[in-house]
Amino acid sequence: MTFEQGVFYFLAIVTVVSAVMMLLQRNPVNSALYLILNFFCLGGLYLTLNAQFIAMVHIMVYAGAIMVLFLFVIMLLNLGDDKSLRQHLGLRMYLGIAFSVGLFLELLYILGFSSANNYTQQSPTAVEMGTVEYIGKILFTKFLFPFEITSFLLLAAIIGAVMLAKKKIIQ
Amino acid sequence: MFCCGVLGVVVRRNAIVIFMSIELMLNAVNLSLVAFSSFLGDSTGQMLVFFVMVVAAAEAAIGLAIIIALFRNKQTVYVDEINILKW
To answer: Closest by alpha carbon to B51, among A161, A144, A128?
Structure first.
């Protein structure tokens, strides 16, 4: 096993374990902290896949912005522990577990029998493809229109968030 | 990881944890997109990941705003106590 493989397996295991731990935590704050660990490991995985720009953006956007937002809302609402999780849901929990295990087996089946096994080597152009220079170039030429659309989407999100979260004006 | 996200959405009652599970699903898809883009040598996957991140950020902001508005009205974030859509 080479060094890269070791790094990959370590990051992958930590990612999956932290995702499972996030589900099992009762306190939402603990869930959020496990999710942050998950995001950092994902950033590492992107780095092993030669996607430096995506890795940095991922760390900044998710671990920086979104998780701060989540923690802020959790603290703002002052949530306690999620009590009586087990006794509350009998049937729904079993159905949910059966559903997700079935989905997992389906994904395994698809990945096991598809052509994905042929891709054991990274493409030679993958190294230059993840750089900021390449991404910036392609973002402003080939993907200029979607880029502009996302700016509108973000503007709509800002306005919507402010409208939803503001207090009603008392007359 | 995607299945963990699905499980979280279905099983948990806390709306905030459900949102985190949705983020988890988006990230699982992002990871597979980056992997395929890297192995196929096609940069479209990375662009798509970039746009997915933008949409996830917008979605998180809107969703948390909805949760705050809901909490202000109902004093709860547990989804099975919110039944105002029933008739």
So the answer is: A144
Residue-averaged pLDDT of chain A: 76
The model's confidence at residue A132, banded by pLDDT at 50, 70 and 90, is confident
ipTM score of the complex?
Answer: 0.76
> Total domain count for chain A?
1
Q: Is B78 helix (H, G, I), strand (E, B) or coil?
A: strand
Asked if the structure places residue B87 within a domain, the reply is no
| A2 inside domain | yes
CA-to-CA dists, residue A52 to A12, A42, A127, A135, angstroms: 18, 12, 9, 10
In sequence order, what E strands does A56-162 have? none
The CATH number of residue A47's host domain is 1.20.120.1200
Report H helices in A117-169: 126-129, 132-139, 144-165
Residue B86 lies in a domain: no
Q: How confident is the model at residue A147 (pLDDT cuts 50, 70, 90)?
A: confident
Tens of pLDDT along A10-38? 888 888 888 878 777 777 788 888 888 88
CA A22-A28-A33 angle, 5° bins: 55
- Cα(A74)–Cα(B15) distance, integer angstroms: 11
The alpha carbon of residue B44 is apart from the nearest alpha carbon of chain A, in Å, by 9
State both tokens at A170.
């008392």
Identify which of B3, B19, B39 has the shortest CB distance to residue A100.
B3
Q: CB–CB of B65 and A161 under 8 A?
A: yes
Token readout for A6 is 């070791």
